[in-house]
Amino acid sequence: MTVRVGVIGAGWIGTEHIQRLTHTITGARVTAVTDIDPARAAEAAEPVGARVLPDGAAVVAADDVDAVLVTSWGPTHAEHVLNAIAAGKPVFCEKPLATTAEDCLRIVEAEQAHGRRLVQVGFMRRYDSGYRQLKEVIEAGTIGEPLLVHCAHRNPTVPESYTSAMAALDTAVHEVDVLRWLLDDEIVSTQVITPRATGKRFGHLKDPQIMLFETAKGVRIDLEVFVNCRYGYDIQCEAVGEEGLVRLPDPAAVGVRTAGRHSTAVLTDWVGRFRDAFDTEFREWIAGVAAGDEPTGPSAWDGYAATVITAATVEALETGAVVATDLKPRPARYGGTA
Ligand SMILES: NC(=O)C1=CN([C@@H]2O[C@H](COP(=O)(O)OP(=O)(O)OC[C@H]3O[C@@H](n4cnc5c(N)ncnc54)[C@H](O)[C@@H]3O)[C@@H](O)[C@H]2O)C=CC1
Ligand SMILES: O=C1[C@@H](O)[C@H](O)[C@@H](O)[C@H](O)[C@H]1O
């Protein structure tokens, strides 16, 4: 079966995913595209032979759409995801699931009322081979019980529109999700420390930031978010356990020796760093939809948890306090007991 996908939001990542679904993934075809900017929708739709539809509701309702991909701006995600659930169609939503905890819970409740999972959230790091190896090592018990995790998330630059809150909401949100998954543990508190700011930033921005998370089992996580680090896009993660440590590998790169120097390139953006992870994420999602299976990737509950934890981190940044994350009890459908 070819899964016919309707796309809501034909901006940067929407266009990337349309290309991916068309040229990289087998078993999928993009049949409908919408964007509040119709010219953008047409530009993305025409090369892949898709129709342009007037809005997200039309995409969800279309007879030639089996599954929905939401890649519009964050504050619009909840409406489109709720429409897809109401129509009983599988929906892949780029992060964040929604920008408020209330909207995330509305989605969780709608999905539970529907009776089976339809929603997958676009936290692609769970599909990165390095993170998957890290998880295997941790689960095998090779490093003993994890005690500490040291992480860094560095971008070379960000535009002036990037705010201090986005360090948590837009950037650290990936670590929040992948660490909950890696450790099979919940983040219960968050704190932010702001060291000396880099001179290479727009003046309004607190950069770098150090985020300190504590999990329910007592694991301590420190995360450096540095979005004007200049030198490249650099993702680091090292888990320290009772018996040893395990470190995320750097992406493979050739070593060059010349003129008395030995060097390896550092990637400069997340597109290259996580290209294979995005491909695997969509390959597995499409295969699941084609088979009629419930999605196995990041769930609506994971989207809710990430939104609550990153909002608490913004509060921690603004108040200087240690902030409890205060998640609701996890329902049984999402692996909890409530
Ligand atoms: N997983 C990842 O690593 C990444 C995820 N993202 C997420 O993807 C989403 C989109 O980001 P970008 O593509 O970078 O933004 P963008 O601004 O390039 O594209 C968003 C598009 O959505 C359209 N749009 C907004 N509201 C709409 C609505 N209600 N209906 C139809 N179209 C609508 C806009 O006109 C725009 O073309 C964001 O939620 C962002 O956080 C973005 C980059 C990386
Ligand atoms: O999602 C992403 C961006 O929105 C964000 O701004 C970057 O910091 C992340 O690395 C990237 O994966």
From TrEMBL:
Q: Where is the signal peptide?
A: none
> What keywords is this UniProt entry annotated with?
NAD, Oxidoreductase
The UniProt catalytic activity note for this protein reads:
myo-inositol + NAD(+) = scyllo-inosose + NADH + H(+)
Report the EC code(s) recorded for this entry.
1.1.1.18
- The Gfo/Idh/MocA-like oxidoreductase N-terminal domain extends over 3-123
Determine if Ribonucleoprotein is one of this entry's keywords: no
According to its UniProt entry, the protein's GO biological process terms are:
inositol catabolic process
Q: Which domain of life is it from?
A: Bacteria
Q: Pfam families from the xrefs? A: GFO_IDH_MocA (PF01408), GFO_IDH_MocA_C (PF02894)
Q: What GO annotations for molecular function exist for this entry?
A: inositol 2-dehydrogenase (NAD+) activity; nucleotide binding
Note the InterPro entries from the entry. Answer: Gfo-Idh-MocA_inositol_DH, Gfo/Idh/MocA-like_OxRdtase_C, Gfo/Idh/MocA-like_OxRdtase_N, MI/DCI_dehydrogenase, NAD(P)-bd_dom_sf
Where is each Gfo/Idh/MocA-like oxidoreductase C-terminal domain found? 135-324
Q: What does this protein do?
A: Involved in the oxidation of myo-inositol (MI) to 2-keto-myo-inositol (2KMI or 2-inosose).
Which family does the UniProt entry place this protein in?
Answer: Belongs to the Gfo/Idh/MocA family.
Subunit structure, interactors included: Homotetramer.
Protein name stated in the entry: Inositol 2-dehydrogenase
The gene designation is iolG
